[in-house]
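User: Could you go from structure to sequence for me? I need the amino acid at each position, not a summary. Structure tokens:
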């Protein structure tokens, strides 16, 4: 069955960037590109017409931009709630693509809700020029979806002929033995350095990939701190960032929150959330 890459289309610049990114990916992978524009009211004929006009313009633009590509494009003007429409469209899609959902831009809070509820992987494409960037960055946090994220990222790196960069962050854990002798009211605490356990966790997550793709160049970055800013910093010069969504692993309390929402909301490069 031919894969389908679904893109939410609006009149925003971020949307055009997302359509171009998705079209290039679809052409490379032999997938069908599905463009969807959503209007709120089924009774509003002007709104529905505006959706049709927008899709016609995007289809025409693509026919010029990728004239040499063998690409099948479908365009659908839908009506209803944008979140419901896009989540339903994700049921038979390999990938759902949105423009940058930063509040005040393209999808706003809708983007966050769509990313959470979608049935497939979700790509968020920011309105930035990524020409000349290379490398695929993957976040590793010990959750149950890390394996899927790493496998997806590795396959992308191999397909692109680029390096894979595995990133993990940890936060020191403070432990103590009660009140300090002779100093009432003060607890003795000592931070535990989790650099080595986190490095071991990363290597375990990469073991299957190293075996499957022995020629793949893999780099690792493990640091103490907040994982979201670390991922954004590393990915700022990369072609793609991959993160897992949902669930936390046995080392959950050693990591600072869920990073997927943060890196999707403030995407610095095309970012794919894998389930």
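Assistant: Here is the amino acid at each position, in order:
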């Amino acid at each position: 069955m031919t894969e389908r890459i679904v893109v939410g289309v609006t009149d925003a610049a971020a949307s055009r960037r997302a359509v171009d990114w998705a079209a290039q990916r679809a052409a490379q992978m032999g997938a069908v590109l599905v463009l969807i524009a959503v209007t709120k009211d089924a009774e509003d004929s002007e709104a529905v017409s505006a959706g049709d006009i927008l899709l016609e313009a995007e289809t025409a633009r693509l026919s010029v931009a990728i004239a040499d590509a063998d690409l099948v494009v479908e365009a659908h003007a839908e009506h209803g709630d944008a979140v419901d429409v896009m989540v339903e469209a994700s049921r038979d899609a390999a990938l759902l693509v949105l423009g940058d959902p930063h509040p005040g831009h393209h999808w706003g809070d809708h983007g966050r809700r769509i990313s959470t509820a979608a049935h497939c992987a979700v790509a968020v494409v920011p309105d930035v020029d990524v020409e000349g960037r290379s490398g695929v960055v993957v976040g590793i946090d010990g959750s149950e979806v890390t394996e899927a994220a790493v496998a997806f990222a590795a396959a992308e790196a191999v397909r692109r002929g680029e390096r894979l960069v595995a990133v993990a962050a940890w936060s020191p854990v403070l432990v103590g033995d009660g009140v300090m002798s002779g100093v009432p009211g003060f607890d003795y605490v000592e931070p535990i350095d989790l650099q080595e356990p986190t490095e071991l966790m990363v290597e375990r997550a990469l073991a299957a990939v190293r075996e499957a793709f022995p020629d793949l160049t893999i780099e690792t970055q493990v640091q103490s701190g907040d994982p979201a800013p670390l991922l954004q910093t590393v990915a700022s010069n990369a072609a793609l960032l991959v993160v897992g969504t949902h669930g936390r692993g046995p080392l959950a309390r050693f990591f600072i929150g869920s990073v997927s929402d943060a890196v999707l909301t403030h995407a610095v490069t095309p970012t794919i959330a894998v389930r």
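One structural detail worth keeping in mind: The first strand starts at residue 4 and ends at 8.
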